[in-house]
Amino acid sequence: MQPDQIRPLNDQLLVKRLETVTRTEGGLFLPENRIAKNIECEVLASGPGARNKSGQFTPNAAQAGDIVIVRTWSGTLLDEVRYPEVSFIKNEVIEALVTKQ
Hints:
Elements: E1 12-17, E2 39-46, E3 49-51, E4 57-59, E5 67-70, E6 76-77, E7 86-90, E8 94-98
């Protein structure tokens, strides 16, 4: 089964973590405490959304193809061998959408 065959439900998103910048443009390695704590992810698939406390339907903030910034330890990792760097996250852990230039 491939990640494109997985369809998230409700307010879940299937994301692939993008590479974290660990070097400067000049080639210097960044110390552990200077590496970004939030992680950029590409959304592979998005569920339709979920109902809020008042019962109104709220769609997910991101759709497939969007780049999002999420908290470091958020999400549920899938099998590392079959799906490296792919995990499920909830819509509420998205910190920001990255705009394409």
